[in-house]
Amino acid sequence: MKIAFFSTQKYDKDFFLKENKKFNFDLIFFEVHLKPDTLELAKGYQVICTFVNDKIDQAMLKELQQNGTKLIALRCAGFNNIDIKAAKELGIQVVRVPAYSPYAVAEHTLALILTLNRKIHKAYNRVKESNFSLDGLLGFDLYGKKAGIIGTGKIGKLVAKILSGFGCEILLYDPFPDAHLEYGKYYDLKTLLNDSDIISIHCPLNDKTKHLINKESIALMQEGVMIINTSRGAIINTKDVIKGLKSSKIGYLGLDVYEEEEELFFEDHSETIVQDDVLMRLISFPNVIVTSHQAFFTHNAMRNIAVTTLKNIKDFEENKELSNLVLP
Known about the structure:
By secondary structure, this protein is α/β, with parallel strands linked by helices. It has helices spanning about 10-20, 60-65, 85-90, 100-120, 120-130, 155-165, 190-195, 215-220, 240-245, 275-285, 300-315; strands at about 1-5, 25-30, 45-50, 70-75, 95, 145-150, 170-175, 185, 200, 225-230, 250-255, 290. The protein is globular, with a radius of gyration of 21 Å.
């Protein structure tokens, strides 16, 4: 079976080709995103494999169906970039990788917290220039701080566990609480926003969570709050967050995702002028760290993504039940 991969990088090819030795599929890799003007590349492929920045709406799905596509294999956990209802109506099945490595994302979350707090990024650059001053590098003890976790899926649970190990008091919010979670206590969202020194976001992006962090929710937070987002960019209203940074309401901001990342992240733009004024304003703040959607990026996670994606496709080929099928 021939499979067309979109939005691929060298590391995608390396991991998928290595794991494909067990499956023997014919893998065709395209570096371009899947979008209306690249749909022709998918023609004739029963299976296509896409990533987080391939946005597939109803019109694109209709054309994919006409071109012979029967399965879209997402090599990621999120599926907000595809019109799942339209896919089902058109008879196109969508599968995903629900849990490639929650440890990778949880550990990156902690890296952002520690780097922002202890100003490791500033200290690193200073020492390289033989500046050994400690002025401006003052941090705080995590011990005893209140850490609010929004979303207690696999990643949120791990972040709660890690931060509890640092001696933080864990405040949890999730519309579907986990009665068996060992670390932290559930509260309503307003209480969490009011009381937390650190707020870490681990919920999916949907109609209810889009712009969950906005001027109204920021107004409820403590002065100098730290906000971390390793989930989905659009959960944060970036312009409102910039206002919060300018007023010092937000004291620290760590992002691994960005609302308008689609045409920027995963690519090298160092030789061009980035036209996104909002992002450029954001990264100009000394108390902001932005990483380019790399929280998932570990050897363990990449291998799990490749294996699970190829197994999803193998199950489809053999008409087996699709355990990672996405439903409306």
